[in-house]
Specification:
Elements: H1 8-11, H2 29-36, H3 41-46, H4 52-57, H5 61-70, H6 85-99, E1 111-117, E2 123-127, E3 131-135, E4 140-144, E5 153-156, E6 162-172, E7 178-188, E8 193-203, E9 208-218, E10 226-229, E11 233-237, E12 249-253, E13 259-261, E14 277-278, E15 282-285, E16 289-298, E17 302-311, E18 325-326, E19 331-336, E20 341-347, E21 357-367, E22 375-385, E23 392-403, E24 410-416, E25 419-426, E26 431-438, E27 445-449, E28 459-467, E29 472-479, E30 482-489
Parallel strand pairs: 13-18
Antiparallel strand pairs: 1-30, 2-3, 3-4, 4-5, 6-7, 7-8, 8-9, 10-11, 11-12, 12-13, 14-16, 15-16, 16-17, 17-19, 20-21, 21-22, 22-23, 24-25, 25-26, 26-27, 28-29, 29-30
Helix pairs in contact: 5-6
């Protein structure tokens, strides 16, 4: 379906027409499902104006489940039995609206609004595209972006401790449950004590709340941890280039809170790093495996990455309170030209796959070659050969397009079923650039500047959050001594 040649937004706002009877109403649902399979999503929505019968029929979950499986749009993982017809329809319709103009040149947002924030609020998280969390050293506030209200609610205030960092992450589990966690690092200067607190977030109708503290990790350093979540695991790691294991890495099963550690001895720790410029270890949490990349640079060899693959134990294999389980390496290899910044998992093998080979695809920004300072938006394909007793792993990197060397923030989102949207700030052109990747299309990727007018008095603009399904961008700026966060919507 070509959304660009369809009057799609008008089709999405049809009012209920008066009920009328048609002979088609007497057909069996099996026949109607077959007929519906030949219709586009726009046709289905237009069909709702025919009669009350078709209004109800076009809300049937079977129809939207089939669309969810067939349409190649950025969307949350699914369809799962936990996901209602309303959820599936809303996700597809919203993403399709964004698809009409993302990231075509001169695409204009549907709406923009400014929210007042303080100069001390430096931590931002967009939860399910609907709630914006902002935090300073003393509290966490939440803006409900579904509401016209500009007054946030205070949802967390630690007592006697300062907030060093705050991150809120969300995911869809392998059985379709939407989960969210808040990771808050706090420090008590008077007692020189600190800890990383992990909360499960409850999604209420009015605002998210910190429902339950599930873990507390002692940490007296002032380092800001990196938080990664996937369908099975939450990974918290420090940004130390030394990559100590397990001191700097903490892993938890998000469904039963079982903790895991990485091996005390790792082949990557035995590498001779003399004269190397090492980068922090990067973790990617997939449905069935945890991927770890440790990249380093040497003048003679360029960028190389030591890749380690850890299978995740099956659900239900552990329980809280048990002795820490150690994840075992199934595949590891020192590979050239695999360095990536801002990595995102674009293709994740299904959890029930019985194939002897598993294929993972990552997307991110990497250096073109060891002799060049330029960077490219790149795909990295990993193939795990399960039948090989030595755990063979092969890989290939594909450069999609050159990237501006001054890019500091690349935000990628909605990477499911090889579909993704992203955004970055082009420093030389002083504009936001949108990108999309669809490995099912003839043209794998597309770039385009987003036409965004801004107050010329604004300075200190910075991208802080992005939701790919809704096409929602959040960026901070200062105007006349006041600090604001701008919410830009493309749907």
């Amino acid at each position: 379906m070509d959304f660009r040649t369809t009057n799609f937004p008008q089709a999405l706002h049809l009012e209920n027409a008066p009920p009328t009877a048609t002979k088609v109403d007497s057909l069996s649902f099996d026949v109607l499902y077959v007929v519906a399979s030949f219709l586009s999503m726009v046709d289905i929505i237009r069909l709702r104006q025919v009669s009350k019968f078709f209004y109800e029929f076009t809300h049937d979950r079977v129809i939207w489940r089939n669309f969810y499986r067939s349409l190649k749009l950025p969307r949350p993982p699914g369809p799962y039995s936990r996901q209602s017809s309303k959820f599936l329809e809303r996700a597809l319709v919203t993403s399709a609206r964004v698809e009409l103009q993302w990231p075509l040149s001169e695409a204009r947002p549907v709406s923009k609004r400014l929210l007042t924030i303080s100069h001390d609020e430096q931590h931002f998280s967009l939860l399910f595209g609907e709630w914006l969390m902002v935090a300073d050293s003393s509290r966490v506030r939440c803006f409900d972006l579904r509401s016209s209200s500009t007054v946030p609610s205070i949802i967390y205030e630690p007592q006697g401790e300062a907030i060093i960092s705050f991150t809120c992450v969300s995911t869809t589990t392998t059985d379709g449950e939407a989960l969210a966690f808040a990771v808050c690092k706090q420090y008590n200067s008077s007692q020189a004590t600190g800890a990383i607190h992990v909360f499960k977030v409850a999604l209420q109708s009015d605002a998210p709340t910190f429902f339950k503290r599930v873990r507390e990790i002692p940490d007296v350093t002032l380092e800001v941890p990196t938080v990664v979540i996937g369908p099975r695991l939450l990974v918290i790691s420090k940004n130390s280039p030394n990559g100590r294991v397990p001191q700097d890495v903490w892993v938890m099963d998000i469904q039963n809170y079982q903790e895991y550690r990485l091996p005390l001895e790792s082949a990557s720790s035995e590498l001779d790093m003399t004269g190397c410029a090492s980068k922090p270890r990067v973790f990617i949490s997939a449905s069935t495996h945890l991927l770890a990349l440790r990249s380093f640079f040497t003048p003679g060899e360029g960028f190389r990455s030591f890749v380690e693959i850890f299978p995740i134990p099956p659900p239900g294999s552990g329980s809280p309170g048990e002795e820490l389980c150690t994840l075992q390496v199934s595949h590891q290899k020192l590979m050239g030209d695999m360095e990536l910044s801002y990595p995102s998992l674009l293709r994740d093998p299904p959890g029930a796959s019985t194939s002897e080979t598993l294929r993972f695809t990552l997307v991110g920004m990497g250096h073109d070659a060891y002799r060049s300072p330029h960077t490219s938006l790149s795909l990295v394909h990993f193939v795990l050969h399960e039948g090989d007793p030595e755990g063979t792993i092969s890989g290939k990197r594909v450069n999609l397009t050159p990237m501006n060397i001054s890019i500091r923030t690349l935000l990628l989102d909605a990477a499911f079923d090889s579909c993704l949207r992203g955004i970055y700030y082009h420093a030389r052109l002083h504009r936001l650039v949108g990108l999309k990747i669809n490995l099912h299309a003839d043209k794998e990727y597309e770039l385009g500047s987003l036409s965004l007018e801004y107050d010329r008095r604004a300075y200190g603009r910075s991208l802080v959050a992005f939701d790919g399904v809704r096409g929602r961008i959040c960026r901070t700026m200062s105007i006349a001594g006041e600090r604001w966060i701008e919410i830009i919507d493309f749907a």
